[in-house]
Amino acid sequence: MSIRDARRVASRANKTLILDGQVSVESIRRAIEALRGITITVQEMPVDQHDVPALTADCGNLKVVYYAPNLSTLHRQHNILHEFSHLLLNHEETATGITIKGFSGTFPTQPRKIMGRGSFDDDAEQSAEFLAYLLSARIGGKGRDERGGSGGLEEAFG
């Protein structure tokens, strides 16, 4: 897939996501859940993974997005939106799983697979990255609000 094709895929997916009112990470999560008929939870990663800023455990109808705790608010938001993008694009059906030592005992139910970035140049990663940028743009200037807050990220995910 070319870069142009990845952008096209991301743009089409972005247009399918109907967001009413003020757009936030939380409203994007709810819209993806409604569109896909899944449940998404977002949690801090329980183990220190320096090379994995975020990943998703596919537990069937439940998708658990984990993020690294040592990220800045905006970096964390982008990585969560990147994982949401994979879910909106239904990448869990085609993604290969990864193994992370010491992590498997933390899941609410046994995952079918754990999905994390294996490279930067595969089609799924490119389209998810473009879509994460488009979703960030929909949040707009709300990466930080006028009080220096997180634009709803802290309220939604702690």
The whole-number mean of residue pLDDT values reads 79
Helix content: 40-55%
Distance between the termini: 37 Å
What is the gyration radius calculated from CA atoms? Answer: 15 Å
Helix and strand run: HHEEEHEHH
Number of helices: 5
* Shape designation: globular
Classification by helices and strands:
alpha+beta
Strand order of the largest sheet: 1-3-2-4
**Beta-strand proportion:** 5-15%
Number of strands: 4
Largest sheet: 4 strands, mixed
Which regions have little confidence, pLDDT < 50, spanning 5+ residues?
142-151
Structure keywords:
158 residues, alpha+beta, 4-stranded mixed beta sheet, globular
Summarize the structure in words.
This protein is of the alpha+beta class and 158 residues long. The chain is built from 5 helices and 4 strands; from the N terminus they run ααβββαβαα. The protein has helices at 3-16, 25-36, 73-88, 123-139, 153-157, and strands at residues 39-44, 54-59, 62-67, 113-115.
SSE topology sketch:
Blueprint (H helix, E strand, L loop, with lengths): L2 H14 L8 H12 L2 E6 L9 E6 L2 E6 L5 H16 L24 E3 L7 H17 L13 H5 L1
Parallel strand pairs: 1-3
Antiparallel strand pairs: 2-3, 2-4
Helix pairs in contact: 1-4, 2-3, 3-4
